[in-house]
Amino acid sequence: MQKPITQIVIVGGGTAGWITAGLLAAEHNVDKGVLAISPKLNITLIESPDVATIGVGEGTWPSMRSTLSKIGIDENDFIRRCDASFKQGSRFINWRTDAVDKSNSYLHPFSLPHGHQELDLCPFWLPHSEKVSFAQAVSSQEVLSQLGLAPKTISSAQYHFQNNYGYHLNAGKFSQLLLEHCTQKLGVTHVRDHVEHIVNNEQGDIEKLITQQHGEISGQLFIDCTGVKSLLLGKHLQVPFLCQKSVLFNDSALAMQVPYEDPATAIASCTHSTAQPNGWIWDIGLPTRKGVGYVYSSSHSNDSQAEQVLRDYVTANGTSNQLASQLEPRKLNINPGYHAKCWQNNCIAIGMAAGFIEPLEASALALIEWTASTLAQQLPPNRQVMDTIADRVNLRYQQHWQQIIDFLKLHYVISQREADAYWRDHRDSSSIPERLQAQLELWRYQAPSQHDISYKEALFPAASFQYVLYGMGFQTQLPSHVKPSQLQLAQRLFNDNQQRTQALSKSLPTNRALLAKVAQYGFPKL
């Protein structure tokens, strides 16, 4: 009889480590919010006391709502403690062309196109592409985000919404909230110590860790959340790293935290991603400050040039020269790529220990959630069958990475920016994956659809490709024939969306106004 898996050791804290601990405990040790008297899993998280949270992963997907709910975190507490605000998608500014004007922007909203379960509206929008943007035709979030409106009202229950949403948040405070919740309510053991040695058994599995202060810590399954060090999966188990710099060039970032000089400053309800000569700038609005950072290619720009671009952006977007001169950017180095597997032997890597490309579209936290949730739901019952589950997870992991790379590259490939070599180099066919080249050729004749995605539960649905393609002005041949009945349905759905947008624009509060009400009253519980 095989010994059941009961001893789980997580190495590394931060968002990746604590989300993983929380989802494992919630799935296996908690029933209706109550910790079992005899938990199935003994979960230990080892965290170095000297490693600080990177603190720039401040944008989440809507999936974070279900993650927080599953772990048992109150949404009001989360928003108040993590300086969170509401995110309804990403707005791309100046990506389409070199022109700097209001028309050179588009939204990739979190809401799927209106009526998507009844009909794919994209082919029916194409003949009207000169009159109305795709996002505005099929989603209310294009207009509502321009107005700075929130995705819900204070009377909406926790985690419920009028429009789909994720969050912007303070990553350091989020990790601290998760730590407290997991240790105080979910029974996770927290060890602050340095891992000095990793010991294998005869079969090549990790048997135990030797720590500086706590000695040996044994386990049956080890989870690597050590960030870019990839201490267990990469360094110890030597799983190859697949660098993607030849496809996606960004390998550097400068990040700033910019306080509001006016406390009543409007809070954007989407991430602003603004194209620059050699990269792009993220701009994330929290209640008391913005998180702003320039992601760029060191092959196309040096650090001093990048810092000047970042400072120019900050002062051009409402920050005084006096305040801007006091802000010091933090340099982050990016090695774009991922390990060939996330699961080797009895070790699975989650988060940056498995891989990281760049923060465009905030896929990093979403991939943490997917991997942690998958592990919690498919936890091997014993070591004998672990490799079977690991192979299944590794296959989906590889598919996710291929899609992430294609989707991020798409943003650059279809840009018409010409002034800078950075953007021209992104369109060089040698840097474009063959699968993406084939899809782009297909999309000249038919719009992206679910048939373009060959596996279930893809991170980016067909609608995401539609939003980006047509937001960037991509041209698809008009459909040669449409059924009259479908045309009537499409017109009804377009009209419904327009009416819904008008109604919500009158009833929804601003992002800041809703956050003030959350601070005072809170959303009602379910």
TrEMBL record:
It comes from Shewanella litoralis. InterPro entries: FAD/NAD-bd_sf, Flavin-dep_Halogenase_NPB, Flavin_halogenase, Trp_halogen. This is Tryptophan halogenase. PANTHER family: FAD-BINDING PROTEIN, FLAVIN-DEPENDENT TRYPTOPHAN HALOGENASE. The lineage of its organism: Bacteria, Pseudomonadati, Pseudomonadota, Gammaproteobacteria, Alteromonadales. It comes from the Bacteria.
